[in-house]
Amino acid sequence: MNSDVALFTQQALNTFTILTSLIASLVLVVGGYLYITSNGKPEALEGAKKTIRNALIGLVLVLSANTLISLFNGALTTPSIPVPTEQLALTPIEPVAPEGGLTQVLMDAIGSLLQNIIQSATKPITESVIGFLTTTPSLVTNSVIFNFWIIIVGITDALFVLLIAILGLQFMSATTFGFEELELKQLLPRVGLAFLGANTSIFLVDWIVKLVNTLITAVLNATGGLNEAWIANAFDPASLSLEQIAFITLIFMLLFVILSVVLLLFYITRLITIAVGAVLSPLIFLLWALPKFSDFAEVSARTYLTTIFSIFVHVVVIQLAAAFLTLPEQVGTSSLVSILVGVGMLLTLLKTQSFMVQLMFYNSGRTLMKKVSGQIMNVISSKQVESASAPAKARAVKTPRKVVSA
Questions:
Q1: Rounded distance, CA 122 to CA 261, Å?
Q2: Residue 8, C-beta contacts closer than 8 angstroms, at least 6 positions apart
Q3: Residues of the chain below pLDDT 50
Q4: What is the pLDDT of residues 54-93, one digit of tens each?
Q5: Spatial contact of 208 and 307, defined as CB atoms under 8 Å apart
Q6: Which of 49, 123, 263, 270 is deepest in the core (most CB within 10 A)?
Q7: What is the pTM of this model?
Q8: Three-class SS string for the chain?
């Protein structure tokens, strides 16, 4: 097991074990109280037994995770024996030199302009992209983000009072005005969990960011870093020469620079989204406590997690492509095929985020269809029970009342 991931997992597991032990103690106290007060109530007795049993089983599972992490630390180690790998060799592409004349003069003039743009912009842009790839800054240590989050938490805590009043009104008048009925045993824990999440949301987000940084560090340490990445080694802008490079190669170099700028803008937008999401996360927990807005809050949380973890997927894609795509005898040259591979890499990275969002929405739609199907089956089952009990009621013999004379 990777040492960085193992250290992060051990620290998170220790915190989670302490938190789970406290929650299990509270659940056991509640279950014991229900067990003591369930005399003559078989359903309450079974519910108390189930509560105690689930608390003990959950606590045992959490404690067993500590044993598993110790086992993985000793068993899963990085192999020191070199493993033979088979790489995909790409065939070089040699552009055909154009004929002379006025066209060549225009191409030389345009090529000189493209050369200046490429040489001045490629290195700072690629270095910025690699800088955004390696790490995501912490949110808790940023005073601006943390102060904004404190302001939103204060607003959210004030709105929780209004939320409780609205839920109480809905619970009171659900049957009278036709509102959706709420169950008190599910309503109170949901509101309490939402309040706790709203007041600790930035720490949860910062923990997720640390998890992503740990995963990225583990991948880079295991694969040798970004020294062989196609983003940095597609071509060398310092060695460009119009006498040695074809005009079509310059065009694809310019396309590479444009896509690098778009990817850099995506990374900047990602950081802004992470900061805004962390600041507004208390309001998302507040909306999650409302039954009508719970789906919106869950979709927002999933989209936010997709945005955070997209950078880890990018690092995996870059390292994987650098591992199996090779150009024999083309290392250090500005060949057309290496630039095309770099362009394809950038396009893949730009499409990764939309692909992950599509998978997220597919999962959300699948869950929604399951809920709708379950409700339909419940309605059909209730109708079948009513239709089966109707003939029995009709066949029932009604005995006349016995009149007792005074």
A1: 9
A2: 210, 211, 214
A3: 76, 80-83, 331, 406
A4: 888 888 887 777 777 666 665 545 554 444 555 555 555 5
A5: no
A6: 263
A7: 0.71
A8: CCHHHHHHHHHHHHHHHHHHHHHHHHHHHHHHHHHHCCCCCHHHHHHHHHHHHHHHHHHHHHHHHHHHHHHHHHHCCCCCCCCCCCCEECCCCCCCCCCCCHHHHHHHHHHHHHHHHHHHHHHHHHHHHHHHHHCCCCCCCCHHHHHHHHHHHHHHHHHHHHHHHHHHHHHHCHHHHCCCCCCHHHHHHHHHHHHHHHHCHHHHHHHHHHHHHHHHHHHHHHHCCCCCCHHHHCCCHHHCCCCCCCHHHHHHHHHHHHHHHHHHHHHHHHHHHHHHHHHHHHHHHHHHHCHHHHHHHHHHHHHHHHHHHHHHHHHHHHHHHHHHEECCCCCCCCCHHHHHHHHHHHHHHHHHHHHHHHHHHHHHHHHHHHHHHHHHHHHHHHHHHHHHHHHHHHHCCCCCCCCCCC
Reading the block at residue 92, the tokens are 């070089």
